[in-house]
């Protein structure tokens, strides 16, 4: 399986940028990098995804290393509503049909 | 647009009882998934389906069965519930594109006593 490694937890002050790292050294050439987040007592929700180039959307930015062995999710201005567990996920290369979730990074936003 | 709907939202079972969790999606997605999430842990894949009439095992399939008789529905069955199956169950669906993301339901909290 193409696995990812993330820090267990991070803290950020409100209205400051947050950089959430993810290592994926066994990524294959066709794996997309996906980020999801899970707010307390809710199902995960899609944040952003990318293949090689950096990506931006209304929620966040995704910066992908040139060798694709790591990526960083960037929240430009953290709010209290961004407190969640953030998951970095790769498509399973064996089947191409499923994603595996790790334990993610629990983000605490300090007012 | 309801997205992914899970029923029931909560359930308490006695050990040995059986039940079926229903997942319904209205987005015409081909792929559907069942995950479980235990306290303080990430999601673990139980079973998945790549289309109507197909099912496949995930990471933790033991003790569960699934069926996908209709494209929009994915059922998760527990034939003889055990306390170890106490968990929050999430259903998800996605379309077939390589970069396609998941849409998740809001979860079913199951307690087996």
Please give a structural write-up:
- The complex is a heterodimer of chains A (111) and B (113).
- Chain A is an all-beta fold.
- Chain A has no helices and nine strands.
- In chain A, the strands form two sheets. A five-stranded mixed sheet of chain A has the order 1-9-8-3-4, with no helix packed on it. In chain A, strands 2-7-6-5 form a four-stranded antiparallel sheet, with no helix packed on it.
- Chain A is globular and about 40 Å long.
- Chain B is an all-beta fold.
- In chain B, the strands form two sheets. In chain B, strands 2, 4, 5, 6, 9, 10 and 11 form a seven-stranded mixed sheet that branches. Chain B has a four-stranded antiparallel sheet with strand order 1-3-8-7, with no helix packed on it.
- Chains A and B meet through strand 4 of A and strand 4, strand 5 and strand 10 of B.
Could you list some keywords that capture this structure?
heterodimer, A: 111 residues, mainly beta, five-stranded mixed beta sheet, four-stranded antiparallel beta sheet, globular, B: 113 residues, seven-stranded mixed beta sheet
């Amino acid at each position: 399986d193409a696995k990812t490694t993330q820090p267990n937890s991070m803290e950020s002050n409100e209205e400051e940028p947050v950089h959430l790292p993810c290592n994926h050294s066994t990524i294959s050439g066709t794996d997309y990098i996906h980020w999801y987040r899970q707010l307390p007592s809710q199902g995960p929700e899609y944040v952003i995804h990318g293949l090689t180039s950096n990506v931006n959307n209304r929620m966040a930015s995704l910066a992908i290393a040139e060798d694709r062995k790591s990526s960083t999710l960037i929240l430009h201005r953290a709010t209290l509503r961004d407190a969640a567990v953030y998951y970095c996920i790769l498509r399973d290369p064996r089947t191409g049909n499923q994603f595996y979730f790790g334990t993610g990074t629990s983000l605490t936003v300090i007012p | 647009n309801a997205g992914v709907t899970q029923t029931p939202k909560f359930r308490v079972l006695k050990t040995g009882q059986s039940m079926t969790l229903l997942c319904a999606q209205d987005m015409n997605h081909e792929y559907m998934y069942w995950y479980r999430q235990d306290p303080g842990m990430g999601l673990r894949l139980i079973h998945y389906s790549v289309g109507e009439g197909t099912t496949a095992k995930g990471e933790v399939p033991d003790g569960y069965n699934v069926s996908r008789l209709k494209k929009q529905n994915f059922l998760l069955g527990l034939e003889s519930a055990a306390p170890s199956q106490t968990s929050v169950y999430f259903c998800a669906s996605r379309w077939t594109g390589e970069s396609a993301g998941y849409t998740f339901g809001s979860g079913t909290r199951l307690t087996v006593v």
